[in-house]
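Person: At home tonight, work slowly through the protein below, taking as long as you need, and write a paragraph about the fold.
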Amino acid sequence: MRHEAWWNHRMTGASAGMARRGLLMAACTAVSAPARAQGSRLRQDFEGMTTGHPPPGFRLGLAGGGPAPRWVVLEDPSAPAGPHVLAETSRDRTNMRFPVAVVESFEARDVAVATRFRPVDGRVDQAAGLVVRYRDTRNYYVARANALEDNVRLYRIVDGRRTQCAGTHIRVPRDRWQTLGLAIRGDRFEVSLDGRVLFGAADQTFSGVGRVGLWTKADSLTHFDALEAETLG
């Protein structure tokens, strides 16, 4: 019941917020992407997966420098959805290094996504991100929270290069479970933390459907407890 209540709260807030709020505009170039088939709803809490191994059903990748990412399922008894979590564990300190783990079986254009995350460690970064409209490892949108910088930002990554579209400074506590949310409809975005909408943005770089997933940066050790997504009508 606690999982359903959390998800219903996140989806209600994301859908209603996209409809009622005037969003902040970000200066971005327009590039179209081809449309593909849409999904409907996704929930992944990692509880049925074997610890110490990569997560089945995910496509793992990397943009930027450094070695290949090492995403594995770990045990974390503090996780709200159960003791299994997902983390990128390589701890490589290459600054411009963006590991991703995207779900292979789910695609959407207009979608609300949410994840619980706990920043554990990292000297270069302590980042947690949500990916939408993922085309490949070098092209997608990501909303990310950073516990070292105390900010939440929205980026587009085009040909492996990261450009900020919007963001805000807000406390992102280390070693505490929090909920990051991202909703996109058309070219409009809303980014939230713990159910509070922080900011909006607009961008047309990726206009077609794409995969959703999780993201970190550099040497971040971040535990992800669950990933939820639902298409928006």
